[in-house]
Design brief:
This is Lipoprotein. By secondary structure, this protein is α+β, with helices and mostly antiparallel strands. It is built from ten helices and eight strands.
Length: about 260
């Protein structure tokens, strides 16, 4: 009898991670009314503390979204950041349209970072403005991916002043549309890196991490330059023009190297 009691308490002998995964997927479907699949749990995904397991899930209707989830080890509480990612994904077409006024080849990737806060709401249709009111600690992470061959000359140089002028105008445009409390990063890719964007978005890592990992694996440069700034809650740029300009110089050696890689220098 004691054996049967213990057997039932431990979920008919299923491994802990398997039981946790079942609870996570069931809870997520109930909360959001849609199905999710598990990307990984425990093990290499680690734990945030001694009381929880960390997992990554993806919605079935958009497997490019990677959603952090935590579950307490007694399976009683589940915390997720799906709302962060869904609100970000909803804004991507809007911000991409704004970006293409300046950079026609722009492709956008966005995430919302609420730090250690896990949203409780389940309204995935809410706007970024509504989300920010609920979570003022949030930072919207906007990455703008460009084909660097359209912006880098044969010496590895760029028209830095022209780009800077566009960056400053874009900050005003973002603020006008209430996209404040944001970090904006322009990522100039090699042609091969630009081709791999869809692959990177579907990977288990962030786009930048996936591309950098591919660089280490293949020895081929995919990211040629990264430039950016932070917008505060009032839409003001925190960095000076000189500070932003310095990023171009920092990355110039890598730009030149990438040109040699494709026979441009």
């Amino acid at each position: 009898m004691a054996f049967l009691t213990l057997f039932s308490l431990f979920g008919c002998g299923k491994p802990r991670d398997e039981r946790a995964a079942e609870e996570i997927l069931k809870s997520m479907q109930k909360k959001y009314g849609e199905e999710f699949v598990l990307d990984g749990i425990g093990g290499s995904w680690g734990t945030m503390n001694n009381n929880t397991l960390k997992a990554i899930v993806r919605p079935k209707n958009d497997p490019t979204l990677k959603v952090p989830v935590e579950i307490t080890k007694d399976f009683k509480q589940i915390y997720d950041q799906y709302l962060n990612q869904r609100v970000a994904r909803n804004e991507e077409p809007k911000i991409q349209e704004l970006a293409r006024k300046y950079w026609p080849d722009a492709r956008i990737d966005i995430a919302n970072d609420t730090r250690l806060t896990y949203p409780e709401e389940n309204d995935t249709s809410m706007s970024y403005t509504e989300f920010l009111k609920l979570y003022p600690m949030n930072t919207q992470l906007i990455s703008i991916y460009l084909d660097g061959s359209n912006y880098v000359d044969e010496q590895g140089s760029m028209d830095q002043e022209e780009e800077l002028d566009k960056y400053l105008e874009f900050a005003e445009l973002l603020t006008e549309h209430h996209y404040v409390s944001s970090t904006v990063t322009w990522v100039f890719l090699t042609p091969e890196g630009y081709k791999r964007l869809d692959e990177a978005r579907s990977s288990s890592s962030s786009v930048n991490v996936h591309l950098l990992n591919m660089e280490k694996k293949t020895g081929e440069i995919l990211i040629a330059t990264m430039v950016g700034y932070k917008l505060n809650a009032q839409g003001q740029i925190k960095e000076t023009r000189a500070e932003i300009n310095s990023y171009f110089d920092t990355w110039k050696e890598k730009r030149i190297e990438s040109l040699g890689q494709r026979g441009g220098a």
